[in-house]
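Let's practice the habit of predicting before peeking. Look at the sequence and jot down your guess about where helices and strands might fall. Then scroll down.
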Amino acid sequence: MNAKLKGKRVVFRDSDFVTAQSCNPPHPDLDCVAVAIKDGVVAVRSTHDKNKRTVRFHKEEWQNFLSAVRAGGFNI
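Done guessing? Here is the structure:
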């Protein structure tokens, strides 16, 4: 777990998660991520994971990641 989030307990419900418009309605052939933001914590999970495991980030980390993606910082 991220050191910044250690000890911070934020509970996410299924209804907190959103996906990109292109992933709605859900389709078994689309690989999408669902994202929820609450109390400065961002939770990310795959829409295909039946166990609904999440990866959590501090909101600032998530914003830095998105900025890097938008700036072409990843070869994807």
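How did you do? The helical segments are 59-70.
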